């Protein structure tokens, strides 16, 4: 049975799209058929992150019933499958985002997991995604405005009876101005399941139009995304240190260490 996970945030600029791209790519590495959908039709960014600037077939066309949704699935060089939204303002004027939920069952036919990159905040697009998904993953940065905005989004998810997987704490710089994890968890009422450090590799990956887990698989950021996906999928995460012995590596693979 397919899962549909919405990646949401209370405000923009917290790394929601980056998170959606990298967990989708990592899920493929775990052997799952993941499809990422750019559900932010008013301000689509997934294609821009991955170098797909002028897709010929888009989510917008599918919502208008001009094409079948499966025909809008693109494959990135990293192996990631995605459905981009159009950058054209003209296309935005002629779609009804309320119809979005009708397309999830069709996408489910082509995926084990559908990841929805939602619009930030609580506009009609974000609400349509929350209503369409099975589960919610919340992304925030360690500052009060991001956390309080995330809380509003989470309250709506709870009202809609959508299970919340947990909180991704993104862009950590470990300075004295950041909120502490404990305080964030007390405000939101949910655990922080991963802490993604602020790192230049993310910018380098964006320049290369690649997911960071693909372009920099051994970076600290990528390892945290891999751990996050292991948590979401309910699988064990094994990190083999360079100085580790082959015997320990094999034992871990067998679940004996």
The CATH superfamily turns out to be P-loop containing nucleotide triphosphate hydrolases
Low-pLDDT runs of 5+ residues are 240-244
**Which structural class fits the helix and strand makeup?**
alpha/beta
* Terminal-residue CA separation: 31 Å
Describe the structure.
The chain is of the alpha/beta class and 257 residues long. The chain has one domain: 3-Layer(aba) Sandwich (Rossmann fold), CATH 3.40.50. The protein is 39% helix and 16% strand. It contains 12 helices and 8 strands. It has an 8-stranded mixed beta sheet, sandwiched between helices. The protein is globular, with a radius of gyration of 18 Å.
In short:
This protein is 39% helix and 16% strand. With 257 residues, the chain is an alpha/beta fold. It has one domain (3-253): Rossmann fold.
Notable characteristics:
8-stranded mixed beta sheet, single chain, 257 residues, 12 helices, alpha/beta, 39% helix
Task: Draw up the topology in text.
Layout: E1 3-8, H1 16-29, E2 34-38, H2 46-49, H3 59-63, E3 74-75, E4 81-83, H4 89-92, H5 104-108, E5 113-117, H6 124-132, E6 135-140, H7 144-159, E7 164-172, H8 181-188, E8 192-197, H9 200-208, H10 212-215, H11 220-233, H12 246-253
Parallel strand pairs: 1-5, 1-6, 2-4, 2-5, 6-7, 7-8
Antiparallel strand pairs: 3-4
Helix pairs in contact: 1-11
């Amino acid at each position: 049975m397919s899962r549909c996970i919405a990646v949401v945030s209370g405000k923009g600029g917290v790394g929601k799209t980056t998170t959606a791209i990298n967990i989708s790519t990592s899920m493929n590495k775990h052997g799952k058929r993941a499809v990422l959908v750019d559900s932010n039709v008013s301000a689509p960014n997934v294609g821009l992150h991955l170098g797909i600037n002028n897709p010929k077939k888009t989510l917008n066309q599918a919502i208008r019933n001009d094409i079948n949704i499966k025909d809008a699935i693109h494959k990135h060089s990293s192996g990631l499958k995605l459905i981009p939204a159009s950058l054209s303002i003209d296309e935005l004027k002629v779609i009804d985002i309320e119809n979005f939920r009708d397309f999830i069952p069709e996408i489910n036919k082509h995926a084990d997991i559908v990841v929805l990159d939602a619009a930030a905040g609580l506009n009609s697009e974000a609400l349509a995604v929350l209503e369409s998904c099975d589960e919610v993953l919340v992304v925030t940065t360690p500052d009060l405005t991001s956390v309080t905005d995330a809380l509003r989004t989470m309250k709506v998810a709870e009202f809609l009876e959508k299970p919340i997987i947990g909180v991704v704490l993104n862009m950590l710089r470990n300075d004295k101005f950041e909120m502490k994890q404990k305080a964030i968890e007390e405000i939101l009422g949910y655990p922080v399941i991963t802490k993604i450090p602020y790192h230049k590799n993310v910018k380098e990956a964006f320049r290369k139009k690649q997911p960071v887990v693909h372009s920099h698989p051994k970076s600290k950021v990528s390892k945290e995304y891999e751990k996050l996906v292991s948590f979401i999928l309910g699988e064990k995460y094994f990190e083999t240190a360079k100085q580790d012995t082959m015997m320990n590596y094999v034992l871990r693979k067998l679940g004996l260490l």
